[in-house]
């Protein structure tokens, strides 16, 4: 061997090694270290006693690389990756308790977080609401407490935000800067204060069962041209339910039951997809507006347990309307109910009981609940009394 050949052989061996290394590197993904440390922190914030052996989190074993495939024994579920980044964090419903590590926001490529139906507690890390690529945030049915940021300006891609069924308090967040949010569920928490300006592209809004107060304002609702379903029941909302609300162009269902509303205004629509309105269990006074019957597909209407007076307009009989379910029980309605209700030709069911109606035939299902005693009716109707039947 010439002295030159030895270094040459060494160089070619080195080249071969490098080639081999780059070949293996092309098939083995190494998760970005900050994603790995976030995942470690997320797992260690879960109470180990609540990680059953069959669960997804039990398979998170950091002796393997989280994003490397195939997953044979480790990292079997609860996360997905794209390349070297974690894109989805989707816990199984194993009953995990513990907290959510704030390091979750290091996972900046996350598009989905779904930790629903577990027992996680403590605050929701504020940084979660700034994840730039997040499309779905579902923390439903846990025990998260504390407040959420009053303003959420950084929700750039969010489509579904569901933090319902937790113990959250403080004001409802203002997410109105989001143009992508279509489904917002803040129900069954302890939120207080007024309804903030709502994101304009919402399809579904649910804030049921909180302690939301104040009146329904145009600032909050007027631009919601896509809103189909609004669930506002079981709060402390007050004032008159404004007529423009039912004229929102896409609205189909409005649940306003169990609040402190004192009036309801119903305007005639040019066109409407409104199918169901529930404004029962409020303190609504006034006459029952015949304008309800101008809504061409309105099939379910409840105004039960309010303080309505006056007679039931003939238009309600269902022959010219879509009405199928009509609950007017528990008011102070007077006069003769339209007899078409009882003719056998009517498709309307529901209740007219517990009013001040005259001749509501007990043979009809709608009249099974009896009318109020005349003394109560006389008092409620300014001494005019219950007309003799
Ligand atoms: C993680 O996996 C390694 C190798 O398969 C195993 O030796 C170790 O016990 C595992 N650790 C846990 C906490 O399961
Ligand atoms: C019925 O609707 C019309 C037109 O929208 C409105 O002017 C009127 O006040 C409404 N009447 C009742 C009783 O609600």
From TrEMBL:
InterPro entries: Leu-rich_rpt (IPR001611), LRR_dom_sf (IPR032675), LRR_N_plant-typ (IPR013210), RLP29 (IPR053213). It is found in: Membrane. Keywords: Leucine-rich repeat, Membrane, Repeat, Signal. The keyword rRNA processing does not apply. SUPFAM superfamilies: L domain-like. Residues 33-68 form the Leucine-rich repeat-containing N-terminal plant-type domain. It comes from the Eukaryota. One of its GO terms (cellular component) is membrane. Residues 1-26 form the signal peptide. Its main location: membrane. PANTHER family: LEUCINE-RICH REPEAT (LRR) FAMILY PROTEIN, LRR RECEPTOR-LIKE SERINE_THREONINE-PROTEIN KINASE GSO1. This is Leucine-rich repeat-containing N-terminal plant-type domain-containing protein. It comes from Deinandra increscens subsp. villosa.
